[in-house]
Write a structure and sequence with these properties.
By secondary structure, this protein is α+β, with helices and mostly antiparallel strands. The chain has one domain (about 1-125): Aminopeptidase, CATH 3.40.630. It has 5 helices and 5 strands; from the N terminus they run βαααβββαβα. β4 (about 75-80), α4 (about 90-105) and β5 form a beta-alpha-beta unit.
């Protein structure tokens, strides 16, 4: 059974360790490990500001995280599932539960930004009825 649980301070260790898993952080927009101090500050701020960030639970075990940036008409979603749980449909079911939550909060559109080299995420979002709407090119100076 898949559940979404609003993040709590008790989730710090799980989220810190998951976020710093190389197979996860290499596909984040900050592709580096984070310090425990920075991570605690991020979680504290998220909880204080009631950000829509959830731990993904599979049979009551923490296995991932899913979040949106805010509750506007258009939101950006980000998620990960621990590598040992990928391919089991957990992320898709978590996304479905998040969609239900967002409908209640009158969100009209969900956007997912994915790094070009993250083929698994591109396939995941396409398999969950997301459509490519733009391509962004970058040039570092």
């Amino acid at each position: 059974m898949i559940e979404l649980s609003k993040i709590k301070f008790e989730d710090i260790d799980f989220l810190f360790n998951a976020r710093n898993t190389p197979e996860i952080y290499k596909y984040l927009f900050n592709p580096n490990p984070v310090s425990l101090e920075d991570h605690k500050a991020w979680i504290k701020s998220a909880i204080e500001h009631e950000k829509p960030i959830f731990v993904i639970k599979y049979n009551e075990e923490s296995v991932g995280m899913i979040q949106v940036n805010s509750l506007d008409k258009v939101v950006e979603v980000g998620l990960y599932v621990l590598p040992s749980y990928s391919g089991k449909g957990i992320a898709s079911k978590a996304l479905d539960k998040l969609k239900d939550y967002l409908k209640i909060n009158e969100v009209e559109e969900i956007v997912a930004r994915v790094l070009n080299e993250n083929n698994a995420s591109k396939k995941f979002f396409e398999n969950n009825d997301f459509k490519i709407s733009e391509v962004v090119y970058k040039y570092k100076i």
